[in-house]
Design brief:
Layout (H helix, E strand, L loop, with lengths): L9 H34 L2 E9 L2 E8 H4 L2 H15 L6 H24 L4 H11 L7 E5 L2 H22 L30 H9 L11
Antiparallel strand pairs: 1-2, 1-3
C-alpha cells in the first residue's frame, strides 16, 4: 500500500527561490539597460519650443532635453554603473547599490516631469536673441520627450526595486582573493601515473617533474 505525504521535497523548495532569482535578474538587467538607453536618448531630443519677439518680428526657438536639465542624463549613467556594480558586491554593499539604482530612476522621473514645464532654457535663448535680459519666450509648448525620459526612469526604478527585493538570490562576481585579501589555496595536483601519458604531459605543462625525482 502506498502512502502520500504532504511534506514538500527539498529540491522543490529550493527550486522556487532559484527560479524567482533568475527571472528577476533577467527583468532587472533588461529594464535597467533599456531605461538608461531611453533616458539618454530622450535628453538629446527637443523638449520644448516657443517664439521670441524682436524688432524685426518673431522667430521660433527650441530647446533640447540637455538644455533644460542635465539631471536625467547624469542619473542614467549613474544607474547603469550601479546596475553593473550590483554583481560586484554582496550583502550590505548590494543593498546600498540597489538603493542607489532605485534612487537614480526616481530622480530621472522627477527631473523629467519638472523639465516638461520648465521654460527657463527658452527664456535664456530669447534674451540672447533679442539682447534684452528681461525678454521671455511666447507660445511655450513641450513635446512628448520629457515623458519618454520619465519612462526610462521608471524602468531604472523597477530594476532597483527588483535588486532590493531579490538581489540576495543573484550571483556575484567570483574573485581570486577572500575577504581578508589572502589568496585562495590552490588545489594539490593529482599524483602522476607513469603509465598514463596524458598525466605525464599535464605534469610537464605545470613545470613539474613527472618522475618525482628531486632536483640535483
Amino acid at each position: 500500500m502506498e502512502y502520500v505525504t504532504a511534506v514538500p521535497h527539498p529540491r522543490t523548495e529550493a527550486a522556487g527561490p532559484a527560479r524567482a532569482g533568475r527571472r528577476s535578474l533577467a527583468v532587472a538587467l533588461l529594464s535597467g539597460a533599456l531605461g538608461a538607453a531611453v533616458a539618454l536618448l530622450a535628453t538629446r531630443q527637443r523638449w520644448s519650443e516657443g517664439t521670441a519677439t524682436v524688432a524685426g518680428g518673431s522667430f521660433p526657438l527650441t530647446a533640447r532635453g540637455s538644455d533644460v536639465t542635465g539631471v536625467p542624463a547624469a542619473l542614467a549613467i549613474v544607474g547603469l554603473a550601479a546596475l553593473v556594480a550590483v554583481f560586484a558586491v554582496r550583502r550590505a554593499g548590494r543593498l546600498a547599490v540597489s538603493a542607489l539604482l532605485a534612487l537614480s530612476g526616481l530622480g530621472i522621473v522627477t527631473a523629467a516631469l519638472v523639465g516638461a514645464s520648465d521654460s527657463s532654457a527658452l527664456d535664456e535663448k530669447a534674451a540672447q536673441a533679442s539682447g534684452d535680459t528681461s525678454a521671455t519666450v511666447a507660445s511655450f509648448s513641450h513635446t512628448a520627450w520629457p515623458y519618454v525620459a520619465a519612462v526610462g526612469g521608471l524602468l531604472i526604478l523597477l530594476a532597483g526595486l527588483l535588486a532590493l527585493r531579490y538581489g540576495r538570490l543573484w550571483p556575484a562576481m567570483s574573485g581570486r582573493y577572500e575577504r581578508d585579501g589572502a589568496p585562495r589555496p590552490r588545489r594539490a595536483a593529482a599524483p602522476v601515473d607513469p603509465d598514463r601519458p596524458e598525466d605525464i604531459w599535464k605534469a610537464l605543462d605545470r613545470g613539474e617533474d613527472p618522475t618525482g625525482a628531486d632536483p640535483a
